Amino acid sequence: MTISIWRYSHLALAVSSFILLTLASVTGVILAFKPIQEKINPYRSDQFEALYLSDVIPQLRSQYPGITKLSIDANQFVQMKGTDQEGENMLVFVDPKTGNLLGKPEAPSEFFEWVTALHRSLFLHETGRFFIGLTSFLLLLITISGTVLIIQRQRGVRRFLTRIVRENFAQYYHVVLGRLSLIPIFLLALTGTYLSLARFELIDTAYILPDVDYDAIQDGPPRDATSFDIFKNTPLSEIQSVDFPFSEDVEDYYTLQLKDRALHVNQVTGEILSEVKYPVSVVLTEWSVDLHTGRTNAFWAILLALASGNILFFIYSGFAITLKRRSGRIKNNFTAEESNFIILTGSENGSTFRFAQEIYKQLLQQGKKVYACELNDFQEFPKATHIIVMTATYGLGNPPTNAAQFAIKLAARPQVRQIHYSVVGFGSHAYPDFCKFAFEVDNLLSRQDWATPLVEIHTINDKSPQEFGQWASVWAQHAGVTLDLSTDLGQDQHTCPHNFTVTEKTVLTVPLDAFRLRLRPEGPYSYASGDLLAIYPGNDHRERLYSIGKVAGEIQLSIKLHPGGLGSEYLYGLQVGDRIHGRIDANPHFHFPEKARQVVMVSNGTGIAPFLGMIDEEAGDRERYLYCGFRDQASFSLYESSIREHLNTGNLASFRLARSREGSRQYVKDLLAQDQELIVEVLKNNGVIMLCGSLAMQQDVVELLDGLCTTILGKTVSYYQSHGQILMDCY
After folding, report:
1. How far apart are the C-alpha atoms of 456 and 698, rounded to whole Å?
2. Contact in structure between 200 and 278 (CB atoms under 8 Å)
3. Distance between CA 580 and CA 498 in Å, rounded?
4. Residue-wise DSSP of 472-510
5. Which of 199, 224, 265, 681 has its CA at a distance of 20 to 30 angstroms from the CA of residue 548?
6. Is residue 576 part of a domain?
7. How far is C-alpha 689 from the chain's CA centre?
8. Which helix (H) or strand (E) holds 55?
């Protein structure tokens, strides 16, 4: 809820101020070039930083007896005022070291004066100044709220500058440029607000020079101005102005205005007659003007121009993000009470809605009653048979704003009938907590009595159309529907570009048991154990996917023969030498982890297939543990000799078998519970646990792992899932 408050505040502030903010930003970009143009003039002395008043005042007073005032502007141009030898008024720039005249001040640019008036007051005098001041304050609040949103997105200040994944142009550069220009924009807003408060005298910036006690002024002993201590110790760079005595009388004195104080100096003895420090408000006002205008530094002025330009971009990109976020909302044709298919979406920037819309549209075209809503709107669905959850993960592991209340709603609204669910996670491997919230949702649903998984959780990296199409194909088969995704969302799933030759097929000794099939690719196809083989046994849209084990350079499949099964009966009918057509789909999220020193592989039934391929690879210094579940010894016999061989060669560190229908009647969950110390050690040491097999097995094992992770490791199972330490490929 906190994220929502900050986001809605950020948006509300932007909407309420964007017109004046646009105007202020455009004029701000223009005015940033004013100090740059001024600094081009050749009126600054090369020795300015090294000069002190003792080097300047005697020299100028000797050369120009009519001098009355010396001023130094933000460009460190020294301006002299007084009368010349002919008695004419004089206002010139001078070299303070040599006394050479450098030029006369030019009349202010009418264009910059016009833009300045527009920037400060909108040509509305004090009323306009009020609105501009208010705009500065709103910009300050926008900056603060935007900073909080980035911190929440990155999960902490220390991660503030970590990489941002590019989801779309507006979102990416809104955050990236926001971080780069944060300090200049914050200072612009803060100083603009402060100057407005000072303008309306809500901050007291007045100060009064102290009176001079004329009776106490001494007329001796006289000293040369070059030896005055105050002149010798005051660099010219600290001076704002010097008012010279009108005559040589001791009652006339120097008035020095420095950056932090003002004082009077006896022109005869150099004694300080009076001194007053400026109030803090006065110093802050000068700093605010310097920072707000960039008048003291050309580089800072350029940064201010860029920051003002970025504000214009933020206005555009912010509204683009908002419109994109809202454009994906689905207008339902059916109510939640009458719908059989429910699509729940969690999205931060709206991109996930595009995928949800495609599934919604496809189901609607087939005459299905579908209802789509955000995860926060979870409620009772009395006629639902299927729930699809499509959710992104916000920042580094957080739920999207429109899904933050899902866990509470789920606990408060149990469903009245059994419902099949499927979770699809959208994320990016560039983030350490890949699809973490999707795993949390899947784990929450797995603990509901009314919820039954239809297919395992599926993750999609960088909104990959291919990976989404892969999930849609599997889900449609299990749900008994047909999905024909548009080409901009998924590849043509009906293509079979790869050819294979059958090299081995085992014969069933037990009816309706599993058999092994070996295929030799007829080309240099790239694949790995854990990838998927797609075939179309009926030469139609019906696709069947099988997990691949790469053994001795060939594809090995483990298939259970189902009576009337389209895919299994087709494959069992093949003979050695037959050719088949199919497609290898990469499944990188279930490849053997290259960097893990310890890997625990857990399977039941034909889920052992990809693990046999992984074990066939050289172990090196990696430890591989295999846990398998079968009905009985006869079901296991198909794989026993291969596993014993790998145990003898050292490719497999250990092997444990659970038989559910004979002997002690165990499941793999029971074996893992017995070896929980090993399981905890593997996770603690950045090892990986891989699951392949039935969804029922997956649910039991994840429940066990969740308990171990929470009670012993102090982290949820979704943490290890999102960090790639628990990998699953179940069906």
Report:
1. 8
2. no
3. 9
4. HHHHHHHHT------TTTS--TT---EEEEEEEEPPPSS
5. 681
6. yes
7. 29
8. helix 53-63
Say how many residues make up the chain. 731
Rounded Cα gap, residues 142 and 132, in angstroms: 15
Q: How many domains does the chain have?
A: 5
pTM above 0.90, yes or no: no
CATH code at 618?
A: 3.40.50.80
Average pLDDT, rounded, for the chain: 89
Residue 552 and residue 445 in one domain: no
Question: Among residues 264, 258, 223, which one has the least CA distance to residue 237?
Answer: 258
Q: d(Cα 517, Cα 530) in Å, to the nearest integer? A: 16
Residues 617 and 723 in one domain: yes
What is the reported pLDDT for 433? Answer: 82
Q: Are 148 and 156 in contact (CB under 8 A)?
A: no
Residue found by looking up tokens 């402060």 in the block: 194
470 belongs to a structural domain: yes
Residue 101 tokens, joined: 């005249």
pLDDT of 264 reads 94
What DSSP character marks residue 448? -
- The dihedral built from the CA positions of residue 635, 636, 637 and 638, taken in this order, carries a sign that is positive
Same-domain status, 685 and 625? yes
Tell whether 105 is covered by a domain.
Answer: no
Q: What is the dihedral of CA 346, 351, 355, 356, to 10 degrees?
A: 40
Q: Which domain holds residue 163?
A: 2-38+110-205+286-323
How far apart are the C-alpha atoms of 364 and 383, rounded to whole Å? 16
Helix (H/G/I), strand (E/B), else coil: 93: strand
Look at residues 537, 559, 591 and tell me which one is the last residue of a structural domain. 591
390: three-class secondary structure by DSSP = strand
Helix (H) / strand (E) element for 629: namely: strand 623-630
Strand partners, 634: none
User: Could you report the per-residue pLDDT of 557-596, keeping only the tens digit for each?
Assistant: 999 998 888 899 999 999 999 999 999 988 888 999 988 9
Same-domain pairing of 450 and 415: yes
Provide the angle, in degrees to the nearest 10, between the axes of the packed helices 125-154 and 182-199: 150
- Report the candidate in 304, 416, 373 with the shortest Cα–Cα distance to residue 36: 304
Are 580 and 603 in a shared domain? Answer: no
Q: Among 268, 297, 323, give the residue marking a domain's end.
A: 323
Report the alpha-carbon distance of residue 671 to residue 404 in Å, rounded: 36
Please state, for a pLDDT cut of 70, what percent of the chain lies above it. Answer: 95
Together in a domain, 141 and 194 = yes
Any domain includes 103:
no
